[in-house]
Amino acid sequence: MAEEIKLNKEVFNKRDYVKAIDVSFKELGVNSTSEQIASQPTVQEFFNLYNELFYDIDELGDTNSHEFLIKTSTEYINFDNNDELVEALQLEISELREELLETQKQFANSLNPSSE
């Protein structure tokens, strides 16, 4: 009761093999550079994701945090230049508060001259 099985073997020569068989690494999950670029989110998609994940992002931290985003964005746009303006304005506010306090003292003394 032996059953005969016929096996057929198809053989390619070296030149025909490369033409007939896909030898790229697509099947292993490796994406080409253009495929990787195409899969990147657009700026609009990034901000949509950011808004969705806003409260899930840690407030502070060296990476993956709001603090990290602020620091890297500040460095990127050279935001430090505005710090000088803020400091100058804070100094002016401080001086104006001192002048206001002095004026209020003078006004209080003019209403009550006997306290001098």
Give structural attributes.
116 residues; mainly alpha; 58% helix; 0% strand
Topology:
Elements lengths: L13 H7 L12 H7 L3 H11 L12 H11 L4 H31 L5
Determine the number of helices (DSSP H or I, runs of at least 4 residues). Answer: 5
Q: Based on CA inertia axes, which overall geometry fits?
A: rod-shaped
| Main sheet makeup | none
Oligomer: single chain
DSSP strand (E) fraction? under 5%
Give the overall pLDDT as a whole number.
85
* Helix-residue proportion: 55-70%
Q: From the alpha carbons, calculate the radius of gyration and give it in angstroms.
A: 37 Å
Structural class call reads: mainly alpha
Q: Which spans of ≥5 residues are poorly predicted at pLDDT below 50?
A: none
Distance between the termini: 131 Å
What are the secondary-structure elements, in order, as H or E? HHHHH
Could you tell me the number of beta strands?
Answer: 0
